[in-house]
Here is the input.
Amino acid sequence: MATDADASSPQVFSAESYFATQPPPPTLESDTARVREFVQRQVHAGSKVVLVTSGGTTVPLELNVVRFLDNFSAGTRGATSAEYFLKAGYAVIFMHRQFSLQPFSRHYSHSTHPFLDFLDIEDASSAEIAVRPGERPQLLRVLAAYKEVQRAGKLLTLTFVTVNDYLWLLRAVSQEMGVLGRSGLYYLAAAVSDFFLPRQKMSEHKIQSGKGSLHIEMDQVPKILKPLVAEWTREGFIVSFKLETDERLLVPKARQALARYGHQVVVGNDLHRRKFEVVFVSPKPGSASRDEVDRDYEESWLRIDLEKDPQKEIEDDIVGELLQRHERWIQSGVTR
Ligand code: PMT
Here is the structure.
């Protein structure tokens, strides 16, 4: 890493050179086997499958990691959306940052709705515990949906921590999902680090303080959407997300991503408005090849009114819209 004066200069990694030089996570093989088995089962059942990525990736600064860079994402978008996909009958591969929110259990997160607060001790001697009456209807709804998903084997959960875990896992999962053809949907809501420290530049031990300042030069993470669209999953319906803090950049950045990668939809969201407003940006139906930069794009805004309906979750409508678009994609038989 660039804390040493003679550290090598930054390198531009393509996806290919990234995977040729960075080591796979130790669980990759077993995770891939689980995905293969899950996908095969869904193919036999004739189910549509969605990969939902969720939460933020870390960038470790040391090999014996003490410090790392992280980002704000709690995994709300991904966990909530996964539930709506399951409700719509999709099988879900939920690839999430370890300890970020998960479908169903998210309703009882330790900070917003701690489960110990709605339990009462009825009789300590016989260990009888009861759920407070006011909490029962919601718990019953969540529990019933969770049990049904488990019974039907419709949810596969995978975890990542670092950006390296994420990239290897995303490649493996999307390659396994290739057999689904157009029935595969990719919902890439994870917040992926843009910069990383290649293993070859990392300090082995904890970086020592005392020099007054720390200079770290990171390399850019390869844009993985490119091989995802062009090589790993040639027929899947791919939805990426774009987060900005300046709302005026949302549509131009989303168009840029579509022109660059040639996929189907970018969902743009502003950091502070993302719970009640998003924009769908996509190529205009019938316009020329996805590779053309000057192709026509269209956008449609989705807004909900949380003052009128505080229980409403915008993911309900995001997923609803995407279900229709995915179905049209399947029917159209268009290839990229
Ligand atoms: O989890 P929450 O707290 O609910 O927050 C949800 C969210 C705001 C994080 C989510 O809705 C969101 O916007 N996620 C994407 C954040 C983002 O802008 O990521 P990005 O600019 O790094 O990447 C844009 C797209 O390119 C993403 O779909 C990503 O999958 C993809 N990408 C990113 C990096 C990389 N090296 N290769 C990629 O292909």
Summary: Confidence is low (pLDDT under 50) at residues 1-7. The CA atoms of residues 244 and 270 lie 5 Å apart.
